[in-house]
Amino acid sequence: MLTDAQCLDLMSRLGAAFPDARAPDSKGGGDPFRSVVSCMLSAQSLDRNTAAASRALFALAATPEGILALSEDQIATAIRPCGLYNVKTRNLRRMCRALIDDHGGTVPRTRAGLMSLPGVGRKCADIVLSFTFGEAVVAVDTHVHRVCNRTGLASGKTEEQTAKSLDIRIPDAFRRRGHVLILAHGKQVCKSRAPRCDTCILADLCEGRTKT
């Protein structure tokens, strides 16, 4: 694992390398309910497919009550681009029902409250907390999970374990932009297949690099 000083160095380099990094539109924007829905649709889906599914669904309904008024076929057809549409349709309806019955139709502002909703795990909860409610939380998706474990910034066999590790180790100055910076590096440089180690600005710090 990297030292605290190395973690700060690593994040500072990413901040300089990706000054314009921002969250994909598929993260849901400023509306809490849309953010939760978009995040649920993003599971095992490319950003562009999630965005297409979200647009199609929100053109039909953009409230818990509105989505529950739709038939399962209407929802499934709208969200088909993001894949797993039958499972996601059922989860969306269950989430909307719980939101109305247990939270008065208002999206919770805490991790525990968000994770109490059917179909919402820690990653989705942290994305909503960070990008919708402005909390200093670093959400861990597959890209962040991979970069953290390769470099030694954080560790964990699962995304949730890595999130807990990263929450302790990431420098406070990078809690708000940590996700987008690590995400950008994971998509552009530290790819799942054929990572660009030879041109990586983190090569001298990366524990994964020293093992190869």
TrEMBL record:
BP term (GO), one: base-excision repair, AP site formation
Cofactor(s) needed by this chain: [4Fe-4S] cluster
Domain HhH-GPD: 41-188
One Pfam family from the record: HhH-GPD
Keywords: 4Fe-4S, DNA damage, DNA repair, Endonuclease, Glycosidase, Hydrolase, Iron, Iron-sulfur, Metal-binding, Nuclease
UniProt GO MF annotations: 4 iron, 4 sulfur cluster binding; DNA N-glycosylase activity; endonuclease activity; metal ion binding
InterPro entries to which the protein is assigned, alphabetical: DNA_glycosylase (IPR011257), Endonuclease3_FeS-loop_motif (IPR003651), HhH-GPD_domain (IPR003265), HhH_base_excis_C (IPR023170)
CDD domains: ENDO3c
Similarity comment: Belongs to the Nth/MutY family.
Protein name, UniProt field: Endonuclease-3
